[in-house]
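Handout, section 4.2: multi-component inputs.
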Amino acid sequence: MLKFEKNDYTIEEVTLCGETIRFRAFRDLIYVEKPVNEEFQKMNLFVPECYYEGASLHGYDLGSAPVFMPNTVGGYMPGPADEPGTNPFLQGRPNTIFRALQHGYVVASPAIRGRVQKGADGRYNGKAPSCVVDYKAAVRYLHFFADELPGDASKIITNGTSAGGALSSLMGSTGNHPDYEPYLQALGAADAGDNVFAASCYCPITNLEHADMAYEWEFCGVNDFHRANMKMDEGGRPVFTPVDGEMTKEQILVSAEEKAMFPAYVNSLGLKDENGDPLTLDADGEGSLKEYVKRVVMESAQRASDQGVDLSDKPWLIVENGKVQGMDFTAYVKDITRMKTAPAFDALDLESPENDLFGNETTNCRHFTEYSTAHTKAQGACAEAEVVKMMNPMEYILDEKAEKAQHFRIRHGECDRDTSLVISAMLTAKLREAGCEVDYRSPWNTPHAGDYDLDELFAWIDGICG
Ligand code: DHB
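Output:
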């Protein structure tokens, strides 16, 4: 039986940078009846303590506060339930949960299984689609106990970055869809909906089975790559080691072949812009969708310029009298540089995080595209089409059986090279076509990152909840 004990809590205080929050903590709420991983299929719930004293924050109270539901998934690895505390990337400054509580949200922080986990029987149990299934099960728990829980369960807002941003986009696009039902049933998830009110998605690493071709559409022609491997040191601080190189002749050939496949995919989507005009690409990868992506980058530059940022070190921008008039896309891509070799996601040697995500109980890594399956260097098998589909929001947005969030906020940094900018642009266009409201921007000079603009994120949440 699923349980929520409303008297099983602690009242706590955390002080950071001279600011104190007092909150009520309900920890380790197991969100499924039959967990396959007890350490992970649970969540923490935090509530501003002043709500129990009758006070309100930003107009919210115990019954009306939105339920902010950030995940901690990165790289499709396990994402533990989090705590109000410090952000390891921000030199001890308050983290997102601290700031959300301070702002007056109820915060639900679910743990979510990841691709490397195994059960006692030695079988993997965190491969796709378990991450999205766990997130859904946690939302079902919140809906199931809505009458007893603090906050307004009709105002659940998911949030995540990168793989976590992809999961948030899935939560917003696939509410209550029957595809996930057998997985939720097997876990004994609550008999309730898994639809959410809004989804905040930072640089979503999504649409994985088309991300290789999208990446080469953007980066083909740039053959040197530059990235940094990250490790946490003993003090829990990130340490970066640079990895630079040149793609091999074979990878350069793959790049051209992947790029050539992208227009047919794009044109099959029937995407439209805000005015209803088609977003397409010709065989060379030129066309209205490319102009749309350029506009996203140029609007980013214009906002930066309006705030006083000097753009003179960006010769690829055409600026006249303080107005961004055009851009050289090829020079822009050279400037931000390539991070990944081709194919960027479905690696021919099965060594990418996504190959690992698409493993199954007994096989650690598998392919998930036709191209890489055909060109495998590791005799890799291919994941089932149904599983690949369940990880792709694009497949559900126009499906009437999927309840969509009414509001999305998508941020994809202007110099992000973890996935092509066109991935979030296509996601945005499709969501708008389905009638969802999408606040979409590419923040200037921003790499692959998230939660960097919490004041604006919270203002957006307050706006849609008001
Ligand atoms: C993440 C980053 C990647 O480049 C990727 O391929 C998958 C996930 C991440 O940061 O979550």
